[in-house]
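Appendix B. Worked example

We walk through a single record from start to finish. Start with the input: the chain for 3-oxoacyl-[acyl-carrier-protein] synthase 2, Oceanithermus profundus, length 411.
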Amino acid sequence: MRRVVITGLGPVTPIGVGAQAFHQAQLAGKSGIRRITRYDPDAYQLNVKIAGEVDVDIDDYLDRKEARRLDRFVQLALIAAELALRDAGLEAGELEPETTGVLIGSGIGGIKTWEDQFKIYFQRGPHRLSPFFIPMVISNMASGHVAMKYGFQGPSSTVVTACATGTDSVGSAARMIQHGEADVMITGGTEAAVTPMAIGGFAVMRALSTRNDEPEKASRPFDKDRDGFVLAEGAGVLVLEEYEHAKRRGATIYAEVAGFGRSEDAHHITEPHPEGKGALLAMKAAMRDGGVTPEQIGYINAHGTSTPLNDRAETLAIKKLFGEHAYKLLVSSTKSMTGHLLGAAGAIEAIATAQALASGVIPPTINLVESEPELDLDYVPGEPREAAVEYALSNSFAFGGQNAVLLLKRV
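Next comes the structure step. The output line below is what the pipeline stores for this chain.
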């Protein structure tokens, strides 16, 4: 198998846009959660009025006419891809088009366009729908538009595995390089679901935090007072390269994608397996793929959603897999700062994990004041922690029981 390394990072998140801003915000324990501004939350009879929104000027990156023909999830993916390529020190003309591919996933796709066009359909009839309606909503358009913008003609695909999408995308892209389908992959996840219907759908499931009066404290993974996750938007794109390809051009390497594992809970459409079986299997598969033992893992970027069931099941899975070593691990959830970016979450967290390995500083879990007795791991509460870690896992678990885990190695 060919080695795969991460050479470019393009985070577009509620706490920072660009690799440096995102990393500094993590180490500062910054919260990106606030009262919703993308629509008036008081206009809807919902008890959720907070989310993680991205502050980025689309006009700084995209032509205004072009941007109007794209759903926000594609806009954010294009921005993230540009930032990742720039961070990798790459110009499109430097890459061989036929050996450069794109794999950017989205859990939901163009839901804002769906909502807008739904209103037009019922108010004015189907003949008044936008001719760009279908191309704006389908999830593969993030990969498609990035490939078209830069002329990349290698493998192009899309992963849709709900909240495991970003991790699934990065792992699948890495395997394309390992197997010789491409030398470079532009990969990650994107989501723009801070909309009335998306918020409403999760709210009626009672999945979201209702801590509207203290939005910056609403996302609190592993804390006994957690009351649900906080929905967020954003995109994370990484440049993956075959190791020798990166070495020849003198690229800066953040980390190596050393392993990838997937599993299925086969238990429930929304609840994780109560014993964490699927999470355990995916972590074990990633370590088996990388040929490492549990004792070699030093850090886990947890799925850590801030929901009662997920945090408990993930902690249990870690304890079962790692035994006594679980208490020597550093485990943190960057969702405490960014909120939950759904299909983009895993990609953003892969970026955070790569930065932790490269910098030797582990991002904290903010808002963790007091845990339940069974949540007794070292969740790096409050402040970042210096630690020279060689191997780290990045966990993502999804509705439908789909799980994906990346094993990253310091280079």
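Two observations about the output. The mean pLDDT is 97. The two ends are 17 Å apart (CA to CA).
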